[in-house]
Amino acid sequence: MALDFETGQESWRIFRIMAEFVEGFEVMSPLDKAVSIFGSARTRPGDKYYQECEETARLLAEAGFTIITGGGPGIMEAGNKGAYDAGGRSVGLNIVLPHEQVSNKYQTISMDFHYFYARKVMFTKYAAAFVCFPGGFGTMDELFETLTLIQTHKVNPLPVILYGSKYWGGLIQWLKSALAPEYIDAGDTDIFKLVDSPQEVLKLVKQGVKKPWWGQPIRPAIKSNGKAAGSARLSASSASPVRRNDQADDGPIRRVSRFGNRRKRQK
């Protein structure tokens, strides 16, 4: 049924949004040691990056990591296939599009999303690392949102790995010359690392989930009664062996009146 803005039916959309988050949290929360892989849906199976992504996912799966992708073709399929063929856990978070993205067949867990933002929460909340292969606008969106969340300390400083120096080299050069230090700190380009082999990815993921290479992990402080007491930054030496973003404290819940910011009328 189409939503009618004039009769107030638009407000019912919140339940559809809520349902995607609830299902996502229930399905994804048991996962541990997951790596989100981003990349183009247009990459062909015979392409160099497809084959190297498949090998990367295979190595990560054999090392005990769950692989999370967007569930579609191209790089997403390669990531799922590598994990699936290795007998690992292979998660596909498919998005429903007007031209209908078809889910690939190499998934042990599959979910469909209508809303991009609900889907992206699942990419970041349950990941312990991120690997970005060459891609288009969608890949750039996923990369820069992840970088922004880490830069602003909204999520843990987990490993972000860019695969393919030929593809990413020009962008990195532009970031360092045009953005730093006026629009970003010079050290912000250290959030990510550039690699050219699946073995390098595996090595950096293992290192990065144990000890962050940028910033400090964000974990809830613990009171003497054992309950969380807001966010606190811990030294790298006190970080848990494998972190993910749902282990960071969400912070206190604030109740704000919808009329709280209005000025009182003068009598």
Topology:
Elements: H1 13-28, E1 34-38, H2 48-62, E2 66-69, H3 75-85, E3 90-95, E4 109-113, H4 116-125, E5 129-132, H5 137-151, E6 160-163, H6 165-179, E7 192-195, H7 198-210, E8 218-222, E9 228-233
Parallel strand pairs: 1-2, 1-5, 2-3, 3-4, 5-6, 6-7
Antiparallel strand pairs: 8-9
Helix pairs in contact: 1-4, 2-3, 2-7
Q: What does the model show?
A:
With 267 residues, the protein is α/β, with parallel strands linked by helices. The protein has a single domain, classed as 3-Layer(aba) Sandwich (Rossmann fold), CATH 3.40.50. 36% of the residues lie in helices and 16% in strands. The strands form two sheets. A seven-stranded parallel β-sheet has the order 4-3-2-1-5-6-7, sandwiched between helices. Helix 2 crosses helix 7. The longest helix is centred in the first third of the chain and has 16 residues. The protein is globular, with a radius of gyration of 20 Å. The termini are far apart.
Provide tags for this entry.
single chain, alpha/beta, two-stranded antiparallel sheet, disordered C terminus
Roughly what fraction of the amino acids lie in strands? Answer: 15-25%
Number of helices: 7
**What's the rounded overall pLDDT mean?**
84
Strand order of the largest sheet: 4-3-2-1-5-6-7
CATH top level assignment: Alpha Beta
CATH topology: Rossmann fold
> Roughly how much helix do the residues carry, as a percent range?
25-40%
- Architecture, according to CATH? 3-Layer(aba) Sandwich
Quaternary class: single chain
Going by helix content, strand content and strand pairing, the class is: alpha/beta
SSE succession: HEHEHEEHEHEHEHEE
Total domain count: 1
The counted number of beta strands is: 9
Taken from the alpha-carbon principal axes, the silhouette is globular
